[in-house]
Amino acid sequence: MTAPLNLSNPIGDRSSVSQKTFAVMECVGSSGRPLTTSEIAVLLDMPTPTVHRIVHQLDMDGLLVQEAGSRGYVPGPRLFNFALNVFQTAVRHGSKHAILERLSAATGETCNFGIISGGALLYADRVEASWPFGLRYEVGSRVPLHCTSMGKMLLAHQPKRRREHLLSLSDLHAYTATTMTDLTVLEEQFAQIRTQGYSLDNQEFLAGVICAAVPVRDARGKVCAAVAVSAPQARMPMSLAIRHIPRLLEAADEISSAWAMDEAEAGEDGHARI
Q1: Do 89 and 50 fall within a single domain?
Q2: At a CB cut-off of 8 Å and minimum separation 6, what does 148 contact?
Q3: pLDDT digit string (tens) for 155-212?
Q4: Does a structural domain hold residue 3?
Q5: Backbone angle region of 75, left / alpha / beta, with phi > 0 → left and psi within -120 to 50 → alpha
Q6: Cα(58)–Cα(178) distance, rounded to whole angstroms?
Q7: Do 147 and 35 fall into the same domain?
């Protein structure tokens, strides 16, 4: 997770083109909404013509894009892919991946770490079980939100309007006979997920595959990711998946604690960490 943009040190204190360009990308990337060039200039205490030149070049390079129907800019595909690659590298080589490895060893099954990305669930990290002929999803793979345990967990904790928007991006395809595609039924399940604290995928995405997921919270207590265990039903029936929930919760708490420590350290030395 990245620390919020610190605007107490205006861009006027920095002289290099690279610093100014990075500051513009950081400003747009951390805003949570489209920003116009005028807004960027105010936030960074930077001359508007300079911001126009930087934004124009970033737009040409695919690092920023103008949102359709808006004058504001959002991260472009190149910037998004760069951030995702950094995130994946940090996860794979950091404490979070080690936590996932321990979880997989404890359950004997494949364990996943997922986030929402572009209207889908993104596998940000994954530790495969040692069993042969397992399901092979590479890190970076995207799967539907509405019929996966991590996807449903993350949807359940979105504000209702954002959840509706995310669901509108998909055709709610019925991948198996047990896939839920009715919005009313899904909303009922989201409420149940929030109450019970975990989410299940009872062969809803892949026939014969069972998954269970729990939320991962950031330093502010907001659900921002999920951890899951998945396996063939023949090896992990639903009753066993539910028995793995305490282990999943322990792993999620460890990851949340690691994030809190990273953010505390970032606050001390002024550098954000993933």
Answers
A1: no
A2: 121, 201, 204, 205, 211, 213
A3: 999 988 888 888 887 889 999 999 999 999 999 999 999 999 999 999 999 999 999 9
A4: no
A5: beta
A6: 45
A7: no
Identity of residue 45: D
Segment holding 108, helix H or strand E? none
Map residue 29 onto helix, strand or coil: helix
Strands (E), 13-92: 64-66, 73-75
SS3 category, 205: coil
**All residues at 6 or more sequence positions from 115 whose CB lies less than 8 Å from its CB, including other chains:** 121, 122, 124, 154, 224, 225, 226
* Pair (118, 212) in one structural domain: yes
Encode pLDDT of 117-163 as tens digits.
778 898 888 898 877 655 666 677 889 999 999 999 999 999 888 88
Query: Is residue 47 domain-shared with residue 91, that is, in the same domain?
Result: no
Q: What is the C-alpha R_g of the chain?
A: 20
Same domain, 71 and 98: no
Same domain, 58 and 169: no
Q: Look at the chain and report how many structural domains it folds into.
A: 2
pTM value surpassing 0.70: no
User: What residue numbers bound the domain in which 53 lies?
Assistant: 11-75
* 77, 84 Cβ separation under 8 angstroms: no
- Does residue 5 lie in a domain region? no
Instruction: CATH number of the domain at 239, please.
Output: 3.30.450.40
Burial class of 107 by CB neighbour count within 10 A (0 to 12, 13 to 18, 19+):
buried
151: nearest Cα among 133, 135, 136, 172: 172
Distance in angstroms (rounded) separating the CA atoms of residues 23 and 204: 43
